[in-house]
Design a protein that fits this description.
Elements (H helix, E strand, L loop, with lengths): L2 H10 L13 H6 L2 H4 L3 E5 L6 H8 L2 E6 L2 H10 L5 E4 L2 E4 L2 E5 L7 H4 L4 E5 L7 H14 L5 E5 L2 E3 L11 H8 L3 E7 L7 H5 L4 E3 L2 E6 L2
Parallel strand pairs: 1-2, 1-6, 2-5, 6-7
Antiparallel strand pairs: 3-4, 4-5, 7-11, 8-10, 9-11
The structure holds S-adenosylmethionine (SAM).
The site of S-adenosylmethionine has 20 residues, from β2.
């Protein structure tokens, strides 16, 4: 989507940012455990103001978020009551957490340094097909061999031509395999998800996939 779409979403708030969850995502708690995160550097592309960054900040060595819309970043620090400083234009820091106010496509490997783990919840699904291909190519430049990703999408019908886009586990596999091993670890049917009633969906699943970058 164009930047204006997301700037407008954050300006409106409310239902326009209903992707934001109040909790720590249960897949994060299950798969990115404190033991798993110990010593790791975590990247959260298209981070919004997700609370999951607080989990990573607590248990990982360092977490780096990347978000296009400054308002989301300011809200994040304010809602978490987390003191921060703007170390340079577009770069916010609070001890083990850094958030870049940047177009993810303009991010370079040198900006983030070594990354062990990428958390993609609602990043792939935020992007239309062409941008998604660019996103995946960028991810490939940032995650070394042995690096892992937790990818969380939505798989629903009928499909909509606006975010969140529907992406099946098989589509995730087609994007990343064989460069990554891909394991579907969660795929619950969620009849109570807010989107089902709102858009009169036939069904909605929330797939969670663990990916490991191969040699
Ligand atoms: C669907 S939201 C998901 C946010 C977060 N991952 C979560 O789970 O709550 C997508 C976010 O990506 C941001 N975004 C969209 N395009 C971007 C880009 N090119 N670079 C960085 N952030 C972007 C939007 O502003 C929005 O906050």
């Amino acid at each position: 989507m164009e930047a204006a779409f997301w700037i407008n979403s954050w300006d409106q708030g409310g239902t326009a940012t209903s992707f934001h969850r109040r909790d720590i995502h249960p897949y994060v708690q299950k798969y990115a455990t404190p033991e798993f995160l110990r010593g790791k550097r975590v990247l959260v592309p298209l981070c919004g103001k997700t609370n999951d960054m607080m989990w990573f900040r607590e248990y990982a060595d360092h977490v780096i978020g990347v978000e296009l819309v400054e308002k989301a970043i300011v809200q994040f620090f304010s809602e978490q009551a987390l003191p921060y400083e703007q170390v340079e234009p577009g770069r916010y820091a609070a001890d083990k957490l850094t958030i870049f106010n940047r177009d993810f496509f303009a991010l370079e490997a040198a900006d983030v340094g070594h990354i062990d783990f990428i958390y993609d919840r609602a990043a792939l699904v935020a992007l239309p097909f062409e941008m998604r291909q660019r996103y995946i190519r960028k991810i490939d430049t940032l995650l070394p061999i042995g690096g892992q990703q937790l990818v969380i999408t939505l798989d629903y019908a009928p499909r909509m031509e606006t975010p969140p886009f529907s992406i099946t586990p098989a589509e995730v596999e087609s994007y990343y395999s064989p460069r990554y091993s891909v394991e579907l670890v969660e795929n619950p049917l969620l009849p109570e998800h807010r989107m089902v009633a709102k858009f009169n969906l036939d069904y909605l699943y929330e797939p969670g996939l663990l990916l490991t970058r191969q040699a």
